[in-house]
């Protein structure tokens, strides 16, 4: 172990890299990309104490040319942002490994002076030290489904907002939200007509999105199998697969439940536990599994039977609902990882084995 000129402790990181990935990288590169300019920072293993900074206009072809001129194995990092996935896809073939890192955890960037070259340099040092938290990205086509779901969510929220505005406008005039008759007063008639047109427009767009979602469900066997789980329909199945993308990126089911916001982490120090706290989770997945749990409990199905067993065993209703949400999440995780049909009474078999 030795202290380098930049103040970082060198823990023989080359050996750590070899153990983790099987590759010793010759160059560590960080890019700070903005709409008009880019800053590229690079550390080479031949001169690990020097960070080389290159500044230029934001140009993809120029960036590719710059990277191709660098000889040897390269690892590159970019902070998660709007153009991050686009850069990930475009640079995928130019680099041995790309890490899209979580800016929330890059605390070093908030210290001291801040501009693009400084941020790129700090990112490069964090990359060299193995201190970056990777955000999952992929070049697989399933990522397109994630964009579809995200856009669908926007359409739904905008449509609901318009309907609420219309209901509020009608309530001001003492009318029900179901009223279709237009008012006689010119201004009020204009407002209601414009709201109705926008709502009808969003409804038509929503139908087109639902058609695309149905096509995805017919093509993907994972979606077909998930739909057989009580409480899971087309929309929820597509949301779950789109947000998960690839279940193999999670080491086990527990990690996946944490990503879904269905488990909490214990706060422990000195052998004592000081309560529990939520992880940073995917809100779409948590909402999907909570909704599925409520839908399953409200029906007549094996999941409802499991819920009743939990209540009989003395579990509080809210804890039982939460257990059902976790149970459905584990089922979906298993189907996405190894596509096969849903087995209804698996929970009963597991209890008998114990």
Molecular structure report:
The chain is of the alpha+beta class and 354 residues long. It folds into 3 domains: 134 residues, 2-Layer Sandwich (Nucleotidyltransferase, domain 5), CATH 3.30.420; 78 residues; 120 residues, no CATH class. The chain has 13 helices and 10 strands. It has a 6-stranded mixed sheet. It is globular and about 70 Å long. It starts with a strand and ends with a helix. 25% of the residues are buried. The N terminus is likely disordered.
What proportion of the residues is helical, as a percent range? Answer: 40-55%
Which structural class do the helices and strands define?
Answer: alpha+beta
Strands, count: 10
Tell me the Rg in angstroms.
26 Å
Q: Can you tell me the number of structural domains?
A: 3
Blueprint of the fold:
Layout: E1 2-3, E2 9-10, H1 13-21, E3 27-33, E4 37-44, E5 47-57, H2 60-69, E6 74-79, H3 84-91, E7 97-101, H4 116-128, E8 134-135, H5 142-172, H6 186-219, H7 221-226, H8 234-244, H9 253-259, E9 264-269, E10 272-278, H10 283-297, H11 302-312, H12 317-337, H13 346-353
Parallel strand pairs: 3-6, 6-7
Antiparallel strand pairs: 1-2, 3-4, 4-5, 7-8, 9-10
List the defining traits of the structure above.
354 residues, alpha+beta, Nucleotidyltransferase, domain 5, 3 domains, two-stranded antiparallel sheet, globular, disordered N terminus
